[in-house]
Amino acid sequence: MRYAFFVSSLNQHLLIVGAMRRIPIAKQGLPYILGLSVLLILLFFLGWTFLTLLALILTILVINFFRDPERVIPQVPQAVLAPADGKIIFVGPTFEDRFLSKETLKISIFMSVFNVHVNRIPFSGDVESIHYEKGTFFAASLDKASLDNEHNAVVLRTPEGEEIVFVQIAGLIARRIDCWLQPGESVQQGERFGMIRFGSRLDVFVPANSRPAVSKGQRVKAGESIICYLQLKE
Fold first, then answer.
1. Can 200 be counted among the known catalytic residues?
2. Which string of DSSP letters, residue by residue, matches 124-172?
3. Distance CA 219, CA 184 (A)
4. Domain 79-229: which CATH class?
């Protein structure tokens, strides 16, 4: 019985290693994966079958969470790309009073724990400023999460002079926001710029006259899905 379980665990471990080689993993996930792997081995040699199976399942879930697949960036003029994988939970006009103090089009994306959580730049331009604020940890799908939860906002100026704000928002489970940008940095559409660990939300604020390309309930992929189009200044 124990030998059969060992063979099964070994096969599962080999499958995990194979998956890690085929699927790019964000380096931020390596400490979690290595720690769980050590725990998995320890539990197995202690003979705790049930806990070993739980650790195996948890390891697979963490690998799935930290996957970082390559994306094909569409080359479409004035298109704003989704900065995150997930489901659109809001599209509509909003007065953005914290960073822009003007009317905008707001698009919100909710990321479940099963989505890819690496975030990507929605539009090329220069990073004007970055604003991090501590806060609460309400469920990211709630409207009040935008205002009350811990968040990190990036203000970006496009080559045409438009301002776009994208805000990483921590959720009920997410307790760590990573942003790899610096003020003054020039960025390209589709580049990786950060991640939020374990379920969260991203809000995007674009000029009010932008044309939406998504609707509530639609699923999008970071760096691939077009969420709206900016209108050229006359």
1. yes
2. -EEEEEEEEE--B---TTSTTHHHHB-EEEEEEE-TTS-EEEEEEEE-S
3. 32
4. mainly beta
Domain boundaries, the chain: 2-65, 79-229
Q: Are 192 and 28 in contact (CB under 8 A)?
A: no
Long-range contacts of 29-36 (CB under 8 A, 24+ apart): 29/62, 29/63, 29/65, 29/66, 32/62, 32/66, 33/59, 33/62, 33/63, 33/66, 36/62
Name the amino acid, one letter, at 82. A
One pLDDT digit (tens) per residue for the chain, 234 residues: 444 444 454 455 444 544 545 668 777 777 777 888 888 888 888 888 888 888 888 888 888 778 888 999 999 999 999 999 999 999 999 999 999 999 999 999 999 888 888 999 999 999 999 999 887 766 666 666 667 788 999 999 999 999 999 999 987 665 678 899 999 999 999 999 998 877 688 999 999 999 999 999 999 999 999 999 999 765
pTM attached to this predicted model: 0.81
Catalytic site residue from 9, 37, 108, 200: 200
